[in-house]
Amino acid sequence: MRTSISTGSLHQLLGISPQTPLGVDAMCRKIRPVIYPAPQLTPRLRAFSTALEKAFEALGITVLTPEEASGSDGRFMGGTVIFAPGIFPDDRLAINRVSTLYNNIIVGIYDEPPPLSSDSLPQERLDAIVRRLARDMVHILFFVTDDSWTICTMNGGVVTFNSPEPSIEDVRCTLVPKLTAQVVPPRAEDIDILEGELQTHTPLFDSVARDFLQCSELWQQNAALVTHTSTRDLEYRSGFYQRIVARYLDQRSGMSYGFFARQLPVAVEPATRCSEPLTLEGHVTITIRGECFLVKVPEVSVITTRSGCRKHQLDPQHDLVEIGIRKGRAYMKTPQPAEAGSAVRPSFDTLTILAHALGNAFVASILLAEQPDAIFPVHLALQGASMTHWHDYPDEVELPAGYQMHGRENPPVSCSTPQSAAYSLLGKIAALEAALEKGEEYRGDVHIEPNHGTNIVGVLSLEETAGVMNPAAVAATR
Question: By the 8 A CB rule, do 475 and 181 touch?
Fold first, then answer.
């Protein structure tokens, strides 16, 4: 493929730092691991830790000692990834030694099988993982046995390797991407919260809300849509650690996974062909099929599910928010009135959702230049577009006509990271190029996120997308 958009543009559009590594080699150059063992280690954990260190060294990654990774105050410096094998007493937990809450990833490593079974439902799997994360105050879990080791992440992702020790390839292609960026909620300084400004009694909102409700009903029986893990029901070592978890999650009452979203209509201008990349305020240059296009950056807005809601039992008056980008700033409008004590928080997926919205606008702009009669730009201008994210993968035969699949070869980064947003935008442009190369109509894209899930975005409504992904539910309603 010959598509590109500069890292400077990603920073301009989404606030993604130009230093954010998007390829595995760049990720390997950035990672700074340290091994911080518990007072007592089993022979298996000693062997695993040694093999892990050797794999890193073979990749040119220096593993620091706890002393080398610590500042003058004895705390682990920001940006270090802390591998913590073994069982720790409270006073030795790695979380007690981090210098920043949001810039150190802690990996707990255990000599035991994962707390899952082969027939665990996705919600059961997620609940078990989150319980252990909260109990041991770590961000990622490794479970090591006689013949395998397993990675469990806070998005419910589980990857098992059929070896008791990590290979160089496993570390490079799977582990390093998961450790390169931390999953954190949007920072308050990066998004304007407009409390009570979402108008929920307009004809447009009523129409959108009906689509959300019909979509929600069709997803009810799909176990892949993990819905809610309450932070109140978790087991904590003490009230002190419970407060740390609450602060890390920005005082959320729970965690939900996946999202439904409806991009509101946006009319775009046709892109302008240019002989070379240009720098023009309010525009971005996109290269596709070897041609440069100057694209005007529009304001975009999206109605989406709020963080922590139960997506299979939606209450549109309280569970929907509007997010968008206006004059280069992200914002979120919440419904009015808000219930006491139930402040609405921006989704962990906010950046990814906005990346899809901008990408849709860019695709529409280029299509207007390439194919003035294309359906996608007209639909985006009149109806907007829908977005659905869940933690499973569709069969290619299930995909709607005109939807292009991409992303399978991307590094398996954690969800809600700058990389996942970048892959959403870059992959959408590549999906458009693939459609043009094959002479196919572009109606949307299916972004596969390895070890994570799927984003399906396009001209179908939320209800129509839910019907395609849940045919049994549709049949049951007839």
Answer: no
Same domain, residue pair 111 and 212: no
Write down the pLDDT at residue 117: 80
Q: What is the pTM of this model?
A: 0.93
Closest by alpha carbon to 114, among 97, 100, 129? 129
The total of structural domains in the chain comes to 2
Same domain, 175 and 205: no
Q: Please say whether the beta carbons of 320 and 462 come within 8 A.
A: no
pLDDT at 432 over 90: yes
Give pLDDT tens digits for 19-78: 899 999 999 999 999 999 999 999 999 999 999 999 999 999 999 999 999 999 999 999
- Gyration radius (Cα) of the chain, Å: 23
CB atoms inside a 10 Å sphere around CB 101: 13
* Residues 166 and 175 sit within 8 Å (Cβ to Cβ): yes
Helix, strand counts (H, E) of the chain: 14, 20
258 contact partners, CB below 8 Å, separation of at least 6: 225, 226, 311, 388, 389, 390, 391, 453
d(CA 420, CA 414): 7
To the nearest 10°, report the CA torsion of 114, 117, 123, 127.
-30
Predicted pLDDT of residue 228: 67
Q: Based on the domain organization, do 126 and 227 belong to the same domain?
A: no
pLDDT at 136: 93
Alpha-carbon distance 466 to 329, whole Å?
31
Q: Could you give the percent of the chain with pLDDT greater than 90?
A: 65
What domain range includes position 103? 21-180
| Choice between 396 and 269, residue whose per-residue pLDDT is larger | 269
Asked if 186 and 175 touch (Cβ cutoff 8 Å), the reply is no
Pick from 383, 389, 399, 391: nearest CA to 444: 399
More confident residue, 337 or 26: 26
Q: From CA 139, how far away is CA 144, in angstroms rounded?
A: 17
Kindly tell me if the per-residue pLDDT of 1 is higher than 60: no
Q: What is the DSSP string of 441-453?
A: PP-EEEEEETTTE
Res 312: pLDDT: 83
Question: What token pair was written down for 206?
Answer: 């009523």
Any bridge partners for residue 324, and if so which? 301, 331
In a domain, 4, yes or no: no
In which residue are the tokens 């009230």 written? 239
